[in-house]
């Protein structure tokens, strides 16, 4: 029986539809488990090179009933999904025509099918405890085809939390982080939920993708075309704008590692002024007082002086443009795009 069991699978490069009962296959795997002490390497090798893990295509209340399913390989299954994405994808994919049939086969965690065989599959056969980065990328790509971000953002955020923990705990090296970054910047990897209820990647064709760290700024730009705020909090409604304090610090670490800017990092002030006046006297005063300011910083704050020495601070007469006006306002503008806020603020001066 053992020899027959070890040759019941197929090559890991093929997908075989078959009819078994879950209880029947569970008994087979339990039998193989009992033989792990005497032929562990033989059993493990068979599962590495053959598709031998039966996964039913549909839930069956009676486990003794014969059900249609597939035999999958080790890299096509996981023991569990702590984020809930697989369960959500299974329900969404059953209603969606956008998810390929072959992908719909891989929507079950083994813990739901064979709950008592964790040691056999994970320790004996080296099934992944949970999906790795590439596994979740595939899951999220299918999820984004099946449902809207408003239906899945809480589960996707759990995936981001998992990645963030891997980065923060240094379980992934810099080379792997760079690979993750390249993947998330790919045009076809639109798996990130935004508060505008749209799936995006970090590719520049989507426009400006950032995370909101300022509620007031977020309200000013949330409806701008080509500007998307990533949803990084799992509480409340998707469209709610929240500040930096609502985002776990480990997720901010992940955002920095992936090259995702905060909203305040890409916002600049644009001056709006009326009543242009002569600025020669003010400019002369600045030119007179600036050497004293330079000398003070050089002696008292050398680090600040070094940071400013290559700017207009060292040669203001040729680079500094000073305007004196009767009234001046500023409004916020996003770098790299034409989006500007409709809200303006009166002030006494603006530095651009």
Automatic annotation (TrEMBL):
GO cellular component, one term: nucleus
InterPro entries documented for this protein: Auxin_embryo_med
GO biological process, one term: leaf vascular tissue pattern formation
PANTHER family noted in UniProt: PROTEIN NO VEIN, WU:FJ29H11
Name assigned to this protein: Uncharacterized protein
């Amino acid at each position: 029986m053992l020899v027959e069991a070890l040759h019941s699978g197929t090559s890991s490069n093929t997908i075989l539809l078959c009819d078994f009962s879950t209880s029947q296959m569970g008994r087979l795997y339990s039998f193989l488990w009992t033989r792990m002490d005497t032929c562990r390497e033989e059993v493990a090798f068979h599962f590495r090179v053959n598709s031998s893990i039966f996964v039913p295509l549909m839930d069956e209340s009676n486990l003794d009933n014969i059900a249609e399913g597939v035999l999958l390989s080790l890299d096509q299954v996981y023991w569990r999904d702590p984020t809930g994405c697989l369960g959500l994808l299974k329900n969404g994919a059953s209603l969606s025509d956008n998810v390929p049939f072959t992908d719909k086969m891989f929507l079950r965690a083994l813990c739901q099918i064979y709950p008592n065989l964790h040691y056999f599959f994970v320790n004996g056969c080296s099934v992944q405890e949970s999906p790795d980065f590439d596994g979740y990328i595939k899951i999220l790509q299918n999820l984004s085809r099946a449902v809207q971000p408003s239906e899945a953002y809480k589960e996707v955020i759990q995936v981001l939390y998992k990645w963030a923990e891997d980065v923060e705990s240094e379980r992934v090296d810099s080379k792997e982080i760079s690979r993750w970054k390249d993947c998330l910047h790919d045009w076809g990897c639109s798996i990130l939920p935004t508060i505008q209820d749209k799936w995006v990647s970090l590719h520049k064709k989507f426009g400006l993708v950032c995370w909101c760290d300022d509620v007031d700024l977020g309200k000013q730009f949330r409806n701008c075309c080509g500007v998307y705020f990533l949803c990084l909090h799992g509480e409340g409604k998707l469209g709610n704008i929240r500040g930096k304090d609502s985002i776990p610090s480990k997720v901010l670490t992940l955002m920095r590692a992936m090259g995702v800017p905060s909203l305040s990092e890409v916002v600049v002030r644009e001056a709006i002024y009326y009543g242009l006046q002569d600025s020669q006297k003010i400019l002369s005063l600045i030119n007179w007082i600036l050497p004293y300011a330079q000398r003070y910083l050089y002696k008292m704050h050398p680090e600040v002086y070094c940071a400013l020495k290559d700017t207009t601070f060292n040669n203001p007469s040729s680079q500094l443009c000073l305007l004196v006006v009767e009234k001046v306002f500023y409004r916020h503008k996003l770098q790299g795009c034409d989006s500007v806020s409709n809200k303006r603020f009166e002030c006494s001066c603006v530095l651009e």
